[in-house]
Amino acid sequence: MKICVGIDAAKVTHWAVAVDGEGRVVLDRAVENDPEAIDGFVAELR
């Protein structure tokens, strides 16, 4: 499945949205600006 991700990057909290090939939102949430939180977000996409 094709997934496209857009991220609004910030110093403390990023906002990430992932959509599938049909344009449906798969994930839409805040992601803290630390490696573990970012890794967790990526893991949700797998």
Protein model, in words:
- The protein is an alpha+beta fold and 46 residues long.
- The protein is 24% helix and 48% strand.
- The protein is built from one helix and three strands; from the N terminus they run βββα.
- The protein has one helix spanning 35-45, and strands spanning 3-8, 13-20, 25-32.
- A three-stranded antiparallel sheet has the order 1-2-3, covered by helices on one side.
- A hairpin with a 4-residue loop joins strand 2 (13-20) and strand 3.
- The termini are close together.
- The mean pLDDT is 94.
Q: Report the strand count.
A: 3
The low-confidence runs, each spanning 5 or more residues with pLDDT under 50, are: none
Order of helices and strands: EEEH
In whole angstroms, how far apart are the ends?
10 Å
Set out the fold topology.
Layout: E1 3-8, E2 13-20, E3 25-32, H1 35-45
Antiparallel strand pairs: 1-2, 2-3
Summarize the structure.
By secondary structure, the protein is α+β, with helices and mostly antiparallel strands. The protein has one helix at 35-45; strands spanning 3-8, 13-20, 25-32.
